[in-house]
Amino acid sequence: MSKLGTLSAKLHRGEVGYDFVKNRKIWYGISVLITITAVVGLVVRGLNMGIEFQGGAVFTTPKHMTTTVSQAETYAEDASGHDAIVQKLGDGSLRIQIAGIDTDKSDQIKEALSKDLKVDPERINADLVGPSWGEQIANKAWEGLAIFMILVVIYLAIAFEWRMALAALVALIHDITITTGIYALVGFEVTPGTVIGLLTILGYSLYDTVVVFDSLKEQTKGITKQTRWTYSDVANQSINGTLMRSINTTVVALLPVAGLLFIGGGLLGAGMLNDISLSLFVGLAAGAYSSIFIATPLVADLKEREPQMKALRKRVLAKRAQAAQGTPEDPAPGRAAGPDEPEDAAPAVVGPRDQSASRGRGRGRTSGKRR
Questions:
Q1: 12 C-beta neighbours (distance < 10 Å), count
Q2: Which residue among 275, 303, 331 closes a domain?
Q3: Residue 351 pLDDT exceeds 50
Q4: 3-state secondary structure 138-165
Q5: H or E stretch covering 101
Q6: Hey, which residues does 293 pair with through a beta bridge?
């Protein structure tokens, strides 16, 4: 743990780091491949919409049923002519879900199930969802998601700038596409819990992104008045400075979600937990990735297209070339430029700053005038 703390402190001070921005094309390529896979899954397999979105019926049997899940699925499919999803609850009862059926057929299906399961029809509880109501719920979910995205873009454009708002929007679309694509490939049912999970992970993804953007905004104040760092350099320092924080918060958030998904939904068979836990698990991982590898590098790409940033990059590269050839460096921070030196030679305070070697030269000397 102490080593992680030391590494986090060094990353924050800029003593060590990884050049995320320089390798941004690699991250873009990885994201494009994952996104294409997700889109193919959506097109080929589609989403398994729950009855809340397409209508249907849910039948709940009495407790302590001896019928197996596979047998109940066969009975339900024979009685309805549609695919059925059966879950065995903790008290031994069966939850039989049949989507895409007319509500007027529910009594007929209930009678058939009671005969196959050898249960009194009055003891089977039926919850019905009409297709028009399910369609309305689906439309409201999409409307809510669209309003959320618009408000996020407006807020980020006001609080930061439009380039950061655009980068955050691209990262959010990236996260949504990957999460829904994984849902299509896995075949899990999409329920209102899935929508709640999506909205939750979008907010979490924005949290990490805004933390980096805030650091970047502070460190780039007066960046054009110095010749030490380009905008991409400072963007990379911002990512590294918040890297351990993003990793720690993501791991802490993923652990309980993984428990819900793999232990609760997998080992214990509580399938109703899968709808929200899968969206949270995939979304949290994708959100952490997009905050580090997509959003901030994209902002750096957009900013480097500005004329001022292009000119800054030329000055920085020219200064580095001079330093490599052994030519005199720019004046130290705080000292005015000489008559033959450019006005931008005195760098502004941008990013991590090294201590000047000349600060300790006079320590220990006796003060006073020479004799």
A1: 18
A2: 303
A3: no
A4: HHHHHHHHHHHHHHHHHHHHHHCCHHHH
A5: none
A6: none
